[in-house]
Amino acid sequence: ELEDSDKMDEDSKIIEELRVTIERQRLHILQLEKALKQEVAKKEEIKNLKSDELQKSQETIKGLTQKVANFMSIVDSKNIELQNLQTALGQYYAESEAKERLAKRVWCSKRTIAKLSESLKAANQALECL
């Protein structure tokens, strides 16, 4: 009976140690579950922040893309305007050169007319003297 009593005492100690171990493990599991929930919540928050940041970045990119398209359109219209101005300037220079040539011809014609007029006067005076 003593042996049985010792055996029971020993079994009781083992059972108590197992209960303590189980309780410690249960507390540890609860701590791990709590930590896991916190990490999952943090991860979800980070995911949401990244999603928001991605959406803002996409909106920024969309806005910038639109601005680039607008600027390209402006540049294209300015290029057309520049081509038109260059064409007009070319025509202006051509007309200016033509005007200079005509002005020289007019000046030469006036000189010729003046010389002919002098010759005519001289001829008229010579005829009057006869």
Automatic annotation (TrEMBL):
Gene Ontology cellular-component annotations: Golgi apparatus
Coiled coil: 15-52
GO molecular function, a single term: small GTPase binding
BP terms from Gene Ontology: endoplasmic reticulum to Golgi vesicle-mediated transport; Golgi organization
Keywords recorded for this protein, A-Z: Coiled coil, Golgi apparatus
Domain of life assignment: Eukaryota
Subcellular location: Golgi apparatus
Stated name of the protein: Uncharacterized protein
